[in-house]
Design a protein that fits this description.
The protein is of the alpha+beta class and 220 residues long. Helices cover 25% and strands 27% of the residues. The two termini are 41 Å apart. InterPro entries: FAD_synthase (IPR015864), Riboflavin_kinase (IPR023468), Riboflavin_kinase_bac/euk (IPR015865), Riboflavin_kinase_dom_sf (IPR023465), Rossmann-like_a/b/a_fold (IPR014729).
């Protein structure tokens, strides 16, 4: 039981059978209701549905405009199945709070740790592998993957957020990370073998390295 006393709702909010419930219905039951007016960008309504749609097609720049900030996902680094390590591309496995995120595919990402300096942690673990600097202080740049990994045989495929940091060898388990999505490379691919998957990852990492080299300013 939440004992809610006040609600902040969009002007198109409806609920219940046939969407008959609305703000007036709640007011009649004694709730204090504040209605938010519609916000438009370039003549179109800003809504969570629209934001999800632009994320699904990889339009990160428009998503950032709609949100007022770059799109990011936060989560704690947890243990995975170590497959990336066997392919020579170790990744951090960031716990997803949503069963299925809006994104799918390969991205250039910037990662910060919410509890400590990520760059200092990486240097402490291996000074010879400092990684690729992100655009902001204490951040690292990496190759992010969101999807179910169709190239890997799994009895119960799960959605995952994985990030490979080139030139890093560090223990990052348990750290709470914010992964900001900067550049969409392509959707998730189903490679015919692990060898083809490894070659595909290598190509993706090289392209994302080049993107970072060519982009000196934060893209949004």
């Amino acid at each position: 039981k939440l004992n809610a006393q006040a609600l902040v709702l969009g002007d198109d909010f409806h609920f219940g059978k046939d969407r008959q419930g609305n703000s007036e219905f709640l007011k009649n039951y004694g709730f204090q209701v504040t209605n938010l007016h519609t916000i438009e960008l370039e003549g179109e309504r800003v809504s969570s549905t629209r934001i999800r749609q632009v994320l699904q097609v990889g339009n990160l720049a428009l998503a950032a405009k709609l949100l007022g900030r770059p799109y990011s996902i936060t989560g704690r680094v947890q243990y995975g199945d170590q497959i990336g390590r066997t392919l020579d591309f170790p990744t951090i496995n960031v716990r997803l709070n949503r069963h299925k995120p809006c994104l799918n595919g390969i991205y250039g990402v910037e990662v910060i740790c919410e509890t400590t300096s990520l760059t200092q942690k990486v240097l402490q673990d291996n000074p010879e592998k400092p990684g690729i600097a992100g655009y902001h202080e204490n951040s690292l740049y990496g190759a992010g993957h969101v999807g179910t990994r169709p190239a890997i045989q799994q009895e119960h495929p799960e959605w995952r957020l994985e990030v490979h940091f080139p030139d890093v060898s560090a223990n990052l388990y348990g750290l709470f990370m914010r992964v900001t999505f900067l550049h969409y490379l392509h959707g998730e691919l189903n490679y015919p073998s692990l060898e083809a998957l490894k070659a595909g990852i290598d190509n993706d990492v090289q392209q994302l390295r080049q993107y970072r080299n060519d982009t000196t300013q934060f893209p949004f």
